[in-house]
Specification:
Blueprint: E1 4-5, H1 7-14, H2 18-25, E2 32-33, E3 48-51, H3 52-63, H4 84-98, H5 103-120
Antiparallel strand pairs: 1-3, 2-3
Helix pairs in contact: 1-2
Length: 137
């Protein structure tokens, strides 16, 4: 089964607005519209799922050469639960292990992560990808 992307995913890949993605891909072959049709009393509601291959074909036709895209990782969505802190701790520890954080640098690394996470709380989530971190010397 082909990998299906959301409008948000494609907007991140193309670095454009979600409205532009809907306009460009809504009528393309292979794109799945899960939304509701327009009726006399209700406007149309669009929920698109765009196959990765359709996005690659679109980019290839525009550039004139074959293009392969890398799908951005999605943050894991969770419902609010009383154990969310425990899960966050386990996920952070796992990420640290997978990225080779060793004891000597662990304290500073986790401190930096916590400070940056606190700062991101004041930035809209759809702008997080635009944030650049500069290392202090």
């Amino acid at each position: 089964m082909p990998e299906l992307l959301t409008v948000h995913d494609v907007a991140l890949i193309l670095k454009c607005s979600e409205d532009a993605v809907v306009r460009r891909f809504a009528k393309m072959s292979g794109v799945i519209d899960l939304g509701t049709p327009e009726t006399r009393n209700r406007r149309r509601y669009r929920v698109l799922r765009i196959p990765k291959t359709v996005v690659e074909q679109y980019l290839s036709s525009k550039s004139g050469r074959p293009i392969t895209i890398e799908v951005p990782e999605r943050a894991e969505r969770r419902r609010r639960s009383p154990k969310w802190e425990n899960r966050a701790i386990l996920n952070l520890a796992k990420a640290g292990l997978q990225n080779g954080v060793v004891n000597g640098e662990a304290r500073e690394t986790y401190k930096r992560i916590a400070e940056r996470a606190r700062l991101l709380m004041h930035v809209p989530e759809n702008r997080w990808a635009d944030v650049e971190w500069f290392e202090e010397e």
